[in-house]
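pipeline/complex-builder :: batch 7 item 3
reading input block
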Amino acid sequence: MSTLNEHLRVLRFTLRHMLLTSNASLLNILIIGIALSLPVGGYVLLKSVQTLGAQIAGAPQISVFLASGTSAGEIDHIGDRLRQHTAVKRIEFVSRDAALKKLQQSTGLADVVAGLAQNPLPDAFVIYPKDGSAAALETLRDELKTWQHFEHVQLDSAWVHKLEALLDFGRMAVAILAALLSFALIAITFNTIRLQILTRREEIEVAKLIGATDSFIRRPFLYFGLTQGLLGGIAAWLLVAASLQLLNHQIGALTQLYASNFSLQHLTPIDSLTLLGFSAYLGWLGAWFSVSQHLWQIEPR
Amino acid sequence: MIKFNQVYKRYPGGHEALKNLSFEVAEGEMLYLTGHSGAGKSTLLKLIAAIERPSSGGVLVKGQNIRSIKPAAIPHLRRNIGLIFQDHKLLFDRNAFDNVMLPLQICGFDHRESAKRARAALDKVGLLDREKANPVALSGGEQQRLCIARAIVNRPTIVLADEPTGNLDTEYSNEIMNIFKSFHQVGVTLLISTHDESILRQFPARALHLKKGELQT
């Protein structure tokens, strides 16, 4: 009497059953795969955009532009004060001359800049705060605004927060989609198992007469749900992988124009395992609901 | 082994299938249940296998009271009881061999051991050469014998047979009764319901006669 042998036997039986009804099984697996690939695809896209956002944003920083005519001594004094501030990690001073040079080099506006009669740029400090959270940044910004000689204080990471909010919105949309389609997966399995129970009614009755326990009768159906869910998850993974391949091919052409190496990243091994585990679990759950709903109705008479 | 004590069975709707039944079956005994169809023979057998429960009175099977048996205990009770049905209840989606394998799989026997036992059971009922056949392809007598092989394959201590010779001619009936006789000889408790008087003459044993749900003495 070996439990492992029994489970292997049921697994073999399940796979053979799937092969025998390969058309119906394939259709079910494909439907589950498509249903799952939508939220998974959304998740992958969001993750890539998030990575892109982090790459561009780097660490959050505050730029402070000084009023014109601030003397060198005053600038030194301000620098010391900033360095001693508890919320500041480090600062960088960008003189107006350095800023002009940088502008000349980076943007190809050399001609325009050369044509200027005088340097229109102010001296500036770039401040890297210790705490990168939105609240801390805003407190620091508001404090700096009250300092003398500061003409303009700019929180450079504001757009990151906007992106973050947008990503949150996207995440919520993906979560809702995932929840709805999970229910769909459970419903698909529920119905498949219901039909199986109906067609195998006689066998269930006979098995009960011969002394089968409820768990013995339940087991093949649960295995079927589990296997179908797992194969559906694999189908979803393949669909997402294929779609990403196609999309990345297109993006390649696009990013070359922008001199960026952005590409959509496929699921990490852990994400992939989570997907497979989750889809298998949902299949099992659908089968379990179906079996508990329908099996007790079959009693030998 | 089996003890009925003032057993009544009423079905919903008021039909009284069994009235005030009291009798005992000793271990290893062979016992006939006779009576017309509708006399309550099948209901009596169903009570022993816990397919039905008595409305009142006590049914003891191997010390277990069927009236109060827990649903979880029923499968284990049934593994000790070989059931033989008039309509065979064979599964037509698998061959004869796999039909006989089913009770062994249910009990969780290892495959090799099961296969050995299944072949022994098929041999006992003379169907070893038909193990690959689908039950549909078997004759009525062969189907009945296959049903018997399935009932005895995990060596139950009690065998209940409901009209096992019901639709069979004399030659097949005798074959099947000879199989039962061999079970009786190895100590199996046997309850056989029948309305065929000739069997009783040929294979004599104690008989309970039922009439409209009551025991006739």
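note: Chain B has a mean pLDDT of 91.
queue -> next item
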